[in-house]
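Why this split exists: single-chain examples teach little about how molecules sit against one another. For that reason, every record in the complexes split bundles all components of an assembly together and asks for one structure covering all of them. Below is a record exactly as it appears in the raw files.
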Amino acid sequence: SQQGEEDPQALSIQEGENATMNCSYKTSINNLQWYRQNSGRGLVHLILIRSNEREKHSGRLRVTLDTSKKSSSLLITASRAADTASYFCAPFINAGNMLTFGGGTRLMVKP
Amino acid sequence: DTAVSQTPKYLVTQMGNDKSIKCEQNLGHDTMYWYKQDSKKFLKIMFSYNNKELIINETVPNRFSPKSPDKAHLNLHINSLELGDSAVYFCASSQDLLAKNIQYFGAGTRLSVL
């Protein structure tokens, strides 16, 4: 299936540092969404970037999208311990008309 | 009030049993989904329903049967449970099928088949 694939699988940083997570996908998309999952909880939507957009900001989050390389990145600036969670990219693929998820990046922010 | 609620939160059962997971959303959404998250955290769509009609059925064994009595509910019944069915199952909903919509997830049901 045409999942979003996140890289790295796990990331450990100190509070105050920036965290960058990457995502690659394989096929034509309508948009790409990022979700966050705290341990033992459901996924929560963070940000959506459309296929004709290149960059989007929301608070401390910055998302980029490069459709020519079929890749996206999520940057969390000035990270906090509360940012510790798994982050999933979810391309909305045109074929199939659905969101697809990968295995996420597990981010740990140490106080 | 929880927007998407699913019950039970935990389900421990023996191989061969039949079990159901219930999901309800109070967001007034038209579309609901079931996802399976495996031990490596990969999240895979199983089914989607729009206004009680099955839209997506992603190569799921026919032991899994979703039922949507109305657009606010999407239940998942599993027959003859197998060890490989152990996972966390998430229900989600969205306004409708349009790509621009985001999805709202329940807290998950952790199924353990012994």
